[in-house]
Amino acid sequence: MAIRNILKQGDEQLLKRSRKVEKFDERLHMLLDDMRETLAQSGGVGLAAPQVGVLRRVVVLLDINKEPEEVVELVNPEVIEQRGEERRVEGCLSVPGVYGYVTRPTWAKIRAQDRHGNWFEREGEGMVAQCFCHETEHLDGHLFTEKVEEYIDPAELSGDNEDCVE
Ligand code: NI
Q1: Gap from CA of 132 to ligand 1 centroid (Å)
Q2: Going residue by residue through the chain (166 aa), what tens digit of pLDDT does each one get?
Q3: How far is CA 131 from the centre of its chain?
Q4: What is the pLDDT of residue 154?
Q5: pLDDT of residue 163
Q6: Which residues have CB atoms below 5 A from the ion given as ligand 1?
Q7: How far is the CA of 26 from the centre of ligand 1 (A)?
Q8: Can you tell me the distance from the alpha carbon of 87 to that of 41, in angstroms, rounded to the nearest whole number?
Q9: Angle at the Cα of 8 (from 125 to 140), degrees rounded to 5?
Q10: pTM to 2 decimal places
Q11: Strand partners, 110
Q12: Catalytic residues
């Protein structure tokens, strides 16, 4: 496994649409393993493959609503249902030091494949629903800054908000 370099805002790879994964092979497994390690080391809660320069529809995220927290691998994910609306603090590993309020669903359901190609569905509330949306947007070349309603001075963030970097 290896830690991959996280691309920062300004890199045009982040603005491209990622391609669907069709081969569930060793190469994909290596990417997922590296992304897990990169995410763990980053202190963030979610990472999309284009953030490490790979234009494939692959995401790893931390489900912090599970006890213990669970790392979730999502291949070809799609948000298929969402409910409610709340304003949440959000940040991104590709836009370091920038935080803002974004309106996100309070609950969302995602459909994705695992590393072997098996389809599954997963539900998430609060930060996890937020993360489903943020990460799938990365796969379409979008950054959260397009959706920020109000930026926040990082000095004003409480410890609770450290989990918002995706
Ligand atoms: Ni992000």
Answers
A1: 11
A2: 899 999 999 999 999 999 999 999 999 999 999 999 999 999 999 999 999 999 999 999 999 989 999 999 999 999 999 999 999 999 999 999 999 999 999 999 999 999 999 999 999 999 999 999 999 999 999 999 999 999 998 888 776 555 678 8
A3: 5
A4: 81
A5: 64
A6: 92, 166
A7: 25
A8: 27
A9: 55
A10: 0.95
A11: 79, 122
A12: 135
* DSSP annotation string for the chain: --PPPPP-TT-GGGGSPPBPP---SHHHHHHHHHHHHHHHHHT-SEEEGGGGT--BSEEEEEETTSSS-EEEEEEEEEEEEEE--EEEEEEETTEEEEEEEEEE-SEEEEEEE-TTS-EEEEEEETHHHHHHHHHHHHHTT--GGGT-SEEE-GGG--GGGGGGB-
CA of 51 to the centre of ligand 1 (A): 8
The Cβ-side half-sphere exposure at 41, using a 13 Å CA radius, reads 12
Compute the distance from residue 47 Cα to the ligand 1 centre, in Å: 6
Which residue type occupies 97? Answer: G
CA 147/CA 16 separation, integer angstroms: 17
